[in-house]
Amino acid sequence: MATLARLQARSKFVAQQYYFRNSVVDIFRKKEYDAAVKIQSWFRGCQVRAYIRNLHRVTTIIQKWWRSYSGRQKYQLIVKFASCAMKMNLYNAMAVRIQRRWRGYRIRKYCFNYFYLKEYLKAVSETNDAIREALEEFAEMKEREEKKADLEREEKKRDYQARKMHYLLSTKQIPGIYNSPFRKDPDPWELRLQKAKPLTYQRSKVKQKRCISLSNWLACTSARSFPRSEILPPIDRKQCQGPFRDITEVLEQRYKPLEPTLRVADPTSELKAAREEVRRQAWMRNVNDNMFLPFSSYHKNKKYIPLMHSSSKYGPNSYGSQHFRDENPKKWICDKDFQTVLPSFDLFSKYGKLYSKAGQII
Amino acid sequence: MSQRQVLQVFEQYQKARTQFVQMVAELATRPQNIETLQNAGVMSLLRPLLLDVVPTIQQTAALALGRLANYNDELAEAVVKGDILPQLVYSLAEQNRFYKKAAAFVLRAVGKHSPQLAQAIVDCGALDTLVICLEDFDPGVKEAAAWALGYIARHNAELSQAVVDAGAVPLLVLCIQEPEIALKRIAASALSDISKHSPELAQTVVDAGAIAHLAQMILNPDSKLKNQVLSALSQIAKHSVDLAEMVVEAEIFPVVLTCLKDKDEYVKKNASTLIREIAKHTPELSQLIVNAGGVAAVIDCIGSCKGNIRLPGIMMLGYVAAHSENLAMAVIISKGVPQLSVCLSEEPEDHIKAAAAWALGQIGRHTPEHARAVAVTNTLPVLLSLYMSTESSEDLQVKSKKAIKNILQKCTYLPALEPFLYDAPPNILKHVVGQFSKVLPHDSKARRLFVTSGGLKKVQEIKAEPGSLLQEYINSINNCYPEEIVRYYSPGYSDTLLQRVDSYQPLTH
For residue A217, is pLDDT > 60? Predict the structure, then answer.
């Protein structure tokens, strides 16, 4: 009970104290609470910070390792690419070197060879010079030829004139017009006249046709009538375009050999030839060429003195012994006399050329 | 007695006819008589005499008709209208060679004036008989027939085709091989007239084997024959590359070059025409000519003649140089450029000057080396003066402008370009300044020379629109020099300096 009394006595106190302490404690409670909170928060903070620091440290380590790993990967990639690139650059550079050399060579050798061009131009200019020289020579030669031809023509003209004027030559008595006595030397025309042969008097005679014997009439056909080319035409040449006859036919008809009549074919000097033949035979047989004189005139070895009427100054006239017609050779047109011609029978020329078979022996 | 009298009447008449026809034929040789003869009605009188019994009268009448028709085309038309041609053609086939010659002469005289008259001759069937005459053995008849065919074929391609269809070409080729010079001449001229119209006709002539014989005849000393032969070959070669190659294969080079040294002017002209026709087709043919030394021969030939004779040679050089730069260089080293500039300055005719300008343009347009070779001979001022002169024909102006442009675009030889700064028109000035702007940045000596010769001053004076090409060129030239120099040479600099002197206040101490 004591305790109770004590307690009851103290109850007021207790209540007071209780209130007091609660209120005081209240006052300090906040402070202490705040302090406690502060301490706790600080401590928690330290804890957390330590934890976080640890975490940071650990994370850093992990990150460090991860970064180093990935960095190394990247680095290896970079190195790989860099080394690839370096190799490629090297190859490119080497390839460029090769290509450069090759392109230069190719252009210089095949597309535009400067030295070849220079050589070519030099060769061209040398050819040009040679051609120029050759052409100059040719022109000179032509000029010389022309001059020579001119000179020759002049010479011929002067010669002909000198021949025409030969009578102006000076004689011993009379000096000619080109040889005046007052001159020191005779004029060159004088010398030319001395050398010139006088022109002969041209008798007006018919121009002599070259005597063509009938056997080679074909040979005398004009060269113009038959076209001659150095290269023969090919054998299988096709017919010329146009209204032409067959060439063989035409040539046959054009160059048909002449079929002369007997009268034309016989030579006119037959009689003379026969006489000659007889004389030749006689001469062959003769032992002695002298005429065989008859014995009665053996002692008559006097020369025959012809009549004065029938002889001329220079020997016996041939008139009366060799020819019996009056002849005047100056009036002849050509310088041959008439010939005795015995024509052959016309009858025999038609032999074998008529259509009818009359009279032929079957 | 009476028989003799009767015969005497006939004899007198014949004598009168013969005399009449001979006098008319003689009078017809003089041009002043022909008018009178025409007014007197000679055509109607000669026509019945063609049918006369006496051959001499026929021949002389034909000869007189031919001479009359030869004089002018009215008379030739009168011959055609008078129905004389069929009679002539008919008797051509039958008569002797004198008549044939006279009749062919008439046909030639009628056919030479115009294509219509030649067509009239073809229509009356004369071609066949003329071709038969070509086979005659008398060379005079062949010559007259070939002459007539040549004159007919000369006018146009249809008539030539008609002549070829009549089968004349092989016979003409045979005629060329005959020994008579006159016949060769006429046959060559006829072949030339036939082949000039079209490539097919030329091919026909070539197929008959004409080229080999024509090529052989180049060596003949007769100059008229050479004329015709060279003209025939050039008419063949001008149509196509194949024909030109066939002509070249006949080995005409280097023989043709001797013809360039002939005394006769027309032989030179025809020879250079032939070489021109060959050179113009391909670079290979030009190369062949250059390798044979043809360029030097042509240049010498140009130097030795004057006037129209030079024209084919000038054109040949232009064609050769146009193909490639190596060939142009070959022309340059053969000393072609001085010769061409001589032609350009001394020829009076515009078309020859135009050809020379064109040729120079073709030579100089390839590379700076070529342009330099042309510019060194001082031809550019001549070309410029031709372009600017009002007396030059349009063709000459156009060609010289093109030549100047082509050469200037490649020219880096500055001493030749400087005179252009002073008197060139604006469209050419642009190119000149452009060339300067290309050369000056790289060459210090040239820059110095440009300044000392007054070129920089002139460039400053050029007024150009800002933004135009000319202004760009001027700017790039100005950039080669320090600013003070550019300002020094700019126009009006002395005025600005004087203004500064005026406005300067001296400091008074």
Answer: no
Question: Residue A45's pLDDT band (boundaries 50, 70, 90)?
Answer: confident
Rounded to the nearest angstrom, the minimum Cα separation between A150 and chain B is 15
Q: What share of chain B is helix, strand, coil (3-state, %, to 5)?
A: 80, 0, 20
* Closest of B82, B58, B73, B84 to residue B117, by C-alpha: B73
Contacts of A253 in chain B (CB under 8 A): none
Domain definitions of chain A by residue range: 7-81
Show me where the domains of chain B are located: 412-493
Determine, for residues B174 and A142 on separate chains, whether the beta-carbon distance falls below 8 Å: no
pLDDT, mean over chain A: 80
Residue B70's nearest CA partner among B106, B43, B109, B40 is B109
Chain centroid, CA A160 distance in Å: 47
Do the Cβ atoms of B296 and A128 come within 8 Å?
Answer: yes
Among B132, B174, B296, beta carbon nearest to A243: B132
What phi and psi values does residue B468 have, to the nearest 5 degrees?
-80, 170
Q: Could you tell me which of A139, A263, A227 has the C-alpha nearest to residue B261?
A: A139
Chain A residues whose beta carbon lies within 8 Å of the beta carbon of residue B180: 224
Which positions in chain A touch B334 (Cβ < 8 Å)? 124-125, 128
> What does the alpha-carbon distance between residue B230 and residue B180 come to, in Å, rounded to a whole number?
18
Q: Is residue A216 very low, low, confident or very high in pLDDT (cuts 50, 70, 90)? A: very low
Contact A242 B166 (CB under 8 A): yes
Of B167, B254, B333, the CB nearest to A131: B254
* Alpha carbon of A96: minimum distance to chain B alpha carbons (Å): 28
With 0-12 CB in 10 A as exposed, 13-18 as middle and 19+ as buried, what is B372? middle
DSSP string, B422-450: HH--HHHHHHHHHHHHHHGGG-HHHHHHH
Q: Are B173 and B208 in contact (CB under 8 A)?
A: yes
* Model pLDDT for residues B175-188, shown as the tens digit of each residue: 999 999 999 999 99
Any alpha helices (H) in chain A, and if so which ranges?
2-106, 114-164, 188-195, 247-254, 262-265, 270-285
- Mind listing the pLDDT tens digit for each residue in A114-169? 888 899 999 999 999 999 999 999 999 999 999 999 999 999 999 999 988 888 88
Q: Name residue B170's amino acid.
A: P
| Cis before B254? omega within 30 | yes
User: Going by C-beta distance under 8 Å and a sequence separation of 6 or more, which residues neighbour residue A220?
Assistant: A212
Residue with tokens 């903070």: A45
Chain A CB contacts of B132 under 8 Å are 242-243
Instruction: Identify whether the C-beta of residue B293 lies closer than 8 Å to the C-beta of residue B254.
Output: yes
Question: Which residues does residue A319 pair with via DSSP β-bridges, in sequence order?
Answer: A323
Whether chain B has a CB inside 8 Å of the CB on A299: the answer is no
Shortest CA distance to B259 belongs to which of B217, B322, B200?
A: B217
CA distances from A333 to A43, A200, A268, A322, B110 (A): 180, 17, 19, 22, 47
Pairing of strands A311-312, A315-316: antiparallel
Residue type, A296: S
Which residues in B have their CB inside 8 Å of a CB on A? 128, 131-132, 135, 137-139, 165-167, 170-171, 174, 177-180, 254, 257-258, 260-261, 263, 290-297, 300, 326, 329-330, 333-334
| Contact between B435 and B429 (Cβ < 8 Å) | no
CA–CA gap between residue B97 and residue B141 (Å, rounded): 6
Grouping H, G, I as helix, E, B as strand and the rest as coil, residue B272 is helix
3-class secondary-structure state, position A316: strand
Nearest beta carbon to residue A124 from set B177, B257, B330: B330
Q: What is the DSSP string of B92-135?
A: HTTS-HHHHHHHHHHHHHHHTS-HHHHHHHHHTTHHHHHHHHTT
Angle CA B382–B386–B391, to nearest 5? 145
